[in-house]
Specification:
Elements: E1 10-14, H1 17-20, H2 61-74, E2 79-83, H3 86-89, H4 100-115, E3 119-123, H5 131-137, H6 144-160, E4 166-168, H7 180-184, H8 195-219, E5 224-231, E6 234-236, H9 241-263, H10 269-276, H11 287-291, E7 297-302, E8 306-308, E9 316-317, E10 324-325, H12 341-355, E11 359-363, E12 373-374, E13 380-381, H13 385-404, E14 408-414, E15 434-436, E16 448-450, H14 452-462
Parallel strand pairs: 1-2, 1-14, 2-3, 3-4, 4-5, 5-7, 6-8, 7-11, 11-14
Antiparallel strand pairs: 9-10, 12-13, 15-16
The chain binds 6-O-phosphono-beta-D-glucopyranose.
6-O-phosphono-beta-D-glucopyranose (BG6) is lined by residues 16, 19, 171-172, 230, 301, 320-321, 363, 367, 414, 421-424, 429.
């Protein structure tokens, strides 16, 4: 493929603390909502951590970060997306002083990245609400969360202002619509959560995020703050006008978040949405002014697209947090997520048309079962041609979008090193260029092995996308 990626394009990979660090109770770390959900974000919640929870050990990044970052550097990474575990910094969430050992750990991680000229891209809250805040305050339902988050982000920005330039305030903020516990630390069961409480919680997060943007810019104006949304293009099932209208409505339920992040106010269509759902957002003095602290860039995850229909009965397929109507034209991953590379070009174009803000693809990838084999040189590896194909096809569409005129800052593939899945808490569902020897029964040496895709991605980066095949 013709070289289309700009020189300063940020190539890299993405991860989250709770899915890889392990060391769930070391150096003063408190419990997060993840530590009590052994079956993943949607699974049953336990009273305390149980042994079957894969995230308690993760891939032991906490102790192995130096060797892991060295491998990422070997691939030529320009950026590494990680999240900070809120509970390492404020173990309960509502304390006044942070935990120095937690702060020191991320200092060390950032120093290690910077040693290789890798820019850290940091998610402040990636499905890791402190459990205490969930239990005592019911998470983001409670306005007090804004104060706790403010203290947390101020601590981070003060401490890392010279090390971290790119920040994301909340991972996939719109996932709260479907996973209020995992996403918003709301312990009230989803079925019992009123729309009023849900949208009020969303308001609290949006205000907190805007406040974070304001604080960051005051502390160091060169810091760039992005929102992060779960992007999933919705196609009408048929050209029937009713299907098209339904599609618009479903799309807007997600766009509401980025509309507020980017424009700094609630869009006019929110009025009807709220009216029909008996929602009245309680705004405090100053909220509207705060929301006007808009983001510097828009980041998003992209794995799949869905369809929408006006029919009463819908054949829903599996999906990334949001279920959707199956598209008969697309194949799916082993976990039923429908694969749609062109959908990525579509998302990039529609978001850029709507906002004219720089975009950052901070998650994309294929979760698949890998087989570790021994090659002719006696090296353990995985021949993951399926992953190479998936990533190639998506990156080709990123190139097309650049050609379409879309401003794209970078691309971080999800789970660049194998980690624990968010939805199902399995390690069997692997995304990485680096294989981690750990299995769902807890066995494995935790050794790392380079997959075929490791060498492929290294070439992609070295050639600025030159080896991608259309
Ligand atoms: C995104 C999340 O929804 O998808 C990640 O931000 C998650 O945390 C990723 O891991 C892939 O989903 P899963 O369920 O396959 O891990």
């Amino acid at each position: 493929m013709k070289n289309r990626f700009p020189e300063n394009f940020l190539w890299g990979g993405a991860t989250a603390a709770n899915q890889m660090e392990g060391a769930y109770n070391e150096d003063g770390k408190g419990l997060s909502v993840q530590d009590v959900t052994p079956k993943g974000g949607f699974g049953p919640v336990t009273e305390g951590p149980t042994e079957d929870n894969m995230k308690l050990v993760g891939i032991d990044f906490y102790h192995r970060y130096k060797a892991d970052i060295k491998l990422l550097a070997e691939m030529g990474f320009k950026v590494f997306r990680i999240s900070i575990a809120w509970t390492r910094i404020f173990p309960l969430g509502d304390e006044l002083t942070p935990n120095e050992k937690g702060l020191k750990f991320y200092d060390d991680v950032f120093d290690e990245c910077l040693k290789y000229k890798i820019e850290p891209l940091v998610t402040i809250s990636h499905y890791e609400t402190p459990l205490h805040l969930a239990k005592v305050y019911d998470g983001w339902k409670n306005r007090k969360m804004i104060d706790f988050y403010e203290r947390y982000v101020t601590t981070l920005f003060d401490r890392y202002k010279d090390k971290v330039k790119y920040w994301l305030t909340f991972n996939e903020i719109n996932s709260i619509l479907h996973a209020p516990f995992m996403s918003g630390g709301i312990i009230t069961p989803k079925e019992a959560l009123s729309k009023q409480d849900l949208y009020q919680a969303i308001h609290h997060e949006l205000v907190a995020s805007a406040l974070a943007t304001k604080i960051a810019h005051e502390i160091n104006p060169s810091m760039q703050i992005g929102c992060m949304v779960l992007a999933m293009p919705v196609y009408p099932m048929t050209p029937k006008p009713e299907d098209v209208m339904k599609t618009l409505e479903l799309d807007r339920s997600n766009l509401l978040f980025s509309d507020i992040y980017v424009r700094g106010y609630y869009p006019s269509y929110a009025k009807r949405l709220f009216k029909e759902n008996d929602v009245v957002i309680h705004m405090e003095d100053g909220d509207e002014a705060l929301l006007r602290n808009t983001v510097d860039f828009i980041s998003f995850s992209y794995y799949m697209s869905i369809c929408e229909t006006s029919e009463e009965t819908k054949a829903l397929g599996a999906g990334n947090i949001f279920p959707g109507v199956k598209n008969p034209y697309l194949k799916a991953s082993e976990w039923g997520w429908q694969i749609d590379p062109l959908g990525l070009r579509y998302v990039l174009n529609t978001l850029y048309d709507r906002y004219q803000k720089p975009l950052f693809i901070v998650e994309n990838g294929l979760g698949a079962v890998d087989e570790l084999i021994t090659d002719a040189h006696d090296h353990k590896t995985v021949n993951d041609d399926y992953r190479i194909q998936y990533l190639n096809d998506h990156l080709v569409q990123v190139g097309e979008a650049i050609e379409d005129g879309v401003e794209i800052m970078g691309y971080t593939s999800w789970g660049c090193i194998d980690l624990v899945s968010a939805s199902t808490a399995e390690l069997k569902k692997r995304y990485g260029f680096i294989y981690v020897d750990r299995h769902d029964d807890g066995s494995g040496t935790l050794e790392r092995y380079k997959k075929k895709s490791f060498y492929w991605y290294k070439e992609v980066i070295a050639t600025q996308g030159g080896i991608l095949k259309k």
